[in-house]
Design a protein that fits this description.
This protein is an alpha/beta fold and 245 residues long. The protein has 2 domains: 69 residues, Ribosomal Protein L25, Chain P (Beta Barrel), CATH 2.40.240.20; 160 residues, 3-Layer(aba) Sandwich (Alpha/beta knot), CATH 3.40.1280.10. Helix content is 31%, strand content 24%. The strands form 2 sheets. The chain has a 6-stranded parallel sheet, sandwiched between helices. A 5-stranded mixed sheet has the order 1-3-4-5-2. Strand 6, helix 2 and strand 7 form a beta-alpha-beta unit. Helix 2 packs parallel to helix 3 and helix 2 packs parallel to helix 6. The radius of gyration is 20 Å and the shape is elongated. The relative contact order is 0.15.
């Protein structure tokens, strides 16, 4: 059984035998919600590639103290995967972020597509972005990831076009495309950028902008997936040919 994972910003500087205190929201979650007790093992990670295997030595209120048994550092997996996710309506954005995180995406970009039903403006933009980031953090812990995904600020179509222009593999998902995703060559390194359109589809103007930098649309298959699930399916299909082999 995998160990429960909690976030601690100082594990990169920890050495075997050292003691770490987990307090604040993470400590409360560990002690009050997960009911971690003295003598149990936990994994503490900084989300930046370092994870410490620890044994809990004491519980003090909503905090715990743990002794470091070992520290491991990993390099980011390749190829790097970036998903520009058109902002979907209601809670489907958090669903997309959760699944993209679990499948291994490195960067999640909220994209303000022209046909997006949901609009992030003012206070709503800040709150929505915070929810996406919180969802990614919790999903990364659940997936036992040592590298947490970055959730960027909201980007425009021009910003997404710039990402596609520098990608090793630019992927624009579109149900009407003639070529299948499976035909794209996928290198073992570099960066894959996947663009997922909104419920209303990617506009002709957006498709033209993407095509101008060499990003032609591709299709996943005969079925039309929801905006919140298409990116996950595409990422899994590509990683099955690279990282997961």
């Amino acid at each position: 059984m995998s160990l429960p994972v909690f976030v601690h910003d100082s594990v990169a500087d920890a050495t075997p035998g050292a003691s770490l205190v987990l307090d604040g929201d993470e400590g409360r979650h560990a002690v009050v919600v997960r009911r971690i007790r003295a003598g149990e093992q936990v994994a503490l990670t900084d989300g930046g590639g370092t994870t410490a295997l620890c044994i809990v030595t004491a519980i003090t209120g909503p905090a715990l103290t743990a002794q470091v048994k070992s520290v491991a550092t990993s390099e980011p997996e390749m190829p790097r995967v970036v998903v520009a996710q058109a902002i979907p309506k209601r809670d489907r954005g958090e669903l997309a972020v959760e699944m993209l995180t679990e499948v291994g995406v490195d960067v999640i970009v909220p994209w303000a597509a022209s046909r997006s039903v949901a609009r992030w403006r003012g206070d709503r933009a800040a709150k929505s972005l915070a929810r996406w980031r919180s969802t990614a953090r919790e999903a990364a812990k659940q997936a036992r990831r040592s590298w947490f995904p970055e959730v960027t600020g909201m980007m425009s179509t021009a910003d997404v076009t710039a990402l596609l222009a520098t990608a090793s593999v630019p992927v624009v998902l579109h149900e009407a495309a003639s070529g299948p995703l499976a035909d794209l060559p996928v290198p073992g390194r570099g960066e894959i950028v996947i663009v997922v359109g909104p419920e209303g589809g990617i506009s002709d103007e957006e498709l033209s902008a993407f095509a101008a930098v060499g990003a032609e649309p591709v299709r996943l298959g005969s079925s039309v997936l929801r905006s919140s699930t298409a990116g996950v399916a595409a990422t899994a299909a590509l990683l099955a040919r690279t990282r997961w082999r």
